[in-house]
Amino acid sequence: MEGEHISTQDRDKPAVIMGGSGAVTTFGQFDARSNQAAQLYRKLGLKAGDAVAFCLENGSELLEIAWGGLRSGLLVVPISSKLTPAEIAYIVQDSGAKILIVSRKLGAETFEGIPAAVTGATLFCLGAAAP
């Protein structure tokens, strides 16, 4: 696969450069982190064709989580971080996602409203322990 060739040949070259901060994620870092996500999905019992949803702010982590799902054969369901807990829950349930990954940075009000609204999906929180 061409993407794998790039990451093995140019591991120290930038894969992601964030416009606002200038933060750089190299191909090597991107490959390792997306592989960690793929390993987690497999460990949780997800199989090709299952769905994983994520509601994160724009950044390298969002791309790594999505690519981890794609490299595992999963359906990825990106959800806007501007939605309400009820809207997030609707998308998760409608997509049949087995996992919802959220960021604590999105705000306590949004984050705390999600668990009560979502059924049938395991909730994961990046950056902090979930309440």
How does this model look, in words?
The protein has 131 residues and is an alpha/beta fold. The protein contains five helices and six strands; from the N terminus they run H-E-E-H-E-H-E-H-E-H-E. It has a four-stranded parallel sheet, sandwiched between helices. Strands 1-2 form a two-stranded antiparallel sheet. Helix 3 links the parallel strand 3 and strand 4. Helix 1 crosses helix 2 and helix 2 crosses helix 3. The longest helix has 17 residues.
Count of DSSP-assigned helices? 5
Strand order of the largest sheet: 4-3-5-6
Shape: globular
String of helices and strands: HEEHEHEHEHE
Report the end-to-end length measured between terminal Cα atoms. 41 Å
Main sheet overview: 4 strands, parallel
Taking all Cα atoms into account, the compactness measure Rg is 15 Å
Mean pLDDT: 84
Instruction: Give the strand tally.
Output: 6
Q: Tell me the structural class.
A: alpha/beta
In what range is the share of β-strand residues?
A: 15-25%
Uncertain stretches:
none
Summarize the SSE layout with pairings.
Layout: H1 2-9, E1 14-17, E2 24-26, H2 27-43, E3 51-55, H3 60-71, E4 75-78, H4 85-95, E5 99-103, H5 108-117, E6 122-126
Helix pairs in contact: 1-2, 2-3, 4-5
Key structural traits:
single chain; 131 residues; alpha/beta; four-stranded parallel beta sheet; two-stranded antiparallel ribbon; globular
Give a short overview:
The protein is an alpha/beta fold and 131 residues long. It has helices spanning 2-9, 27-43, 60-71, 85-95, 108-117; strands spanning 14-17, 24-26, 51-55, 75-78, 99-103, 122-126.
